[in-house]
Design goal:
mainly alpha
Length: about 325
């Protein structure tokens, strides 16, 4: 009988130890509720045991800590989820990081801290995934911009409307703006260079080339980008036209000076020779040519004054016109 009693006691102890080990294992793997259920079943149906009771109480305390941790995690996650739902992902990320730092400082219980971090892990994972998606979108914007910066700018605006707290918004706008300028300038460099080559010999044709360029199906933004170069070309055309007008006027004045100095003497002679007549005829031809050149130059000058230019240039042209009229 003693042997049987000893054997039964040993079996009961072994069974108790096995249950205790299972309870501890369930508790350590965050299966706290099944652990409590197993402990209560043992205490109710097998026997009252101090060690099992302690394990059960520890599990109940853990459940309370877990419940409190869930409550804290929900309170933290709610505003973060609202921010993420509004696509304020970077604001949500900053809020989550700040909340984690605050919790780490204020919660002293490692088990409770573990529960809180476990509950926040889902929020953190979902937010990280949404941030990865947003990053992929902005990468696509720049991939498109390498081919067409104008399209890239439109896509960036759409992106910024969706993600209003994107931290690199201004920086990316500048990058795409610079890329847009580079692409537009490259597109028009050859055409502008061709106009520049024409200016010295035919400023009128160069002016027509600019007009034709601006009449084509050109984007207003492109016009604004190349505007400084177009203005420089127009200034060069004006300077060349003015130079040619001065040249014609100086040439006309040269004809007039020669006539006054030479041919007027021949006209007063009593015996005009054939040579003198020839020279007078040539002088009259030069006089007519001078008049024609002067008249044409003045008309061109009058037309230049009516064109759009700055007040200083207009004043210079008006002074030149007054002198030669």
């Amino acid at each position: 009988k003693d042997t049987l009693k000893k054997s039964a006691s040993q079996q009961a102890m072994a069974f108790r130890d096995k249950i205790a080990s299972q309870i501890a294992q369930l508790r350590d793997t965050s299966n706290t509720r099944p652990a409590v259920a197993l402990a209560n079943t043992y205490l109710k149906n097998v026997t009252s045991d101090q060690e099992i009771s302690k394990l059960a109480q520890a599990c109940i305390d853990a459940l309370k800590a877990e419940a409190k941790a869930i409550e804290i995690a929900k309170a933290v996650a709610k505003p973060i989820a609202e921010q993420a739902e509004a696509n304020k992902l970077w604001t949500a990320k900053a809020s989550l990081d700040q909340a984690k730092d605050t919790i780490a400082l204020r919660v002293n219980d490692p088990q409770q801290l573990k529960f809180i971090n476990r509950e926040l892990a889902r929020t953190s994972t979902e937010l990280s995934q949404r941030l990865m998606d947003a990053t992929q979108k902005i990468n696509t914007v720049f991939e498109v911009a390498q081919r067409d910066a104008a399209d890239g700018q439109k896509r960036l605006e759409a992106f910024l409307q969706q993600y209003t707290d994107y931290p690199d918004a201004e920086q990316d706008k500048i990058k795409l703006g610079d890329l847009r300028k580079e692409q537009v300038q490259k597109k028009f460099d050859k055409k502008l260079a061709a106009i520049q080559e024409v200016i010295p010999n035919d400023p009128k044709e160069a002016k027509a080339m600019i007009a034709n360029l601006l009449k084509t199906d050109i984007d207003p933004d492109e016009v604004s980008i190349i505007n400084s170069k177009v203005v420089a070309l127009k200034r060069g055309i004006l300077e060349r036209e003015t130079e040619l007008i001065r040249k014609d006027m100086d040439e006309a004045q040269g004809y007039l000076t020669k006539f006054d100095a030479t041919y007027s003497i021949d006209l007063k002679s009593e015996n005009v020779t054939a040579t003198q007549t020839q020279r007078v005829s040539a002088g009259i031809e030069n006089l007519v040519r001078a008049h024609s050149m002067q008249t044409g130059a003045i008309k061109r000058l009058e037309m230049l004054i009516t064109e759009e230019t700055d007040n200083i240039t207009k004043s210079k042209l008006a002074g030149l016109l007054a002198t030669h009229e």
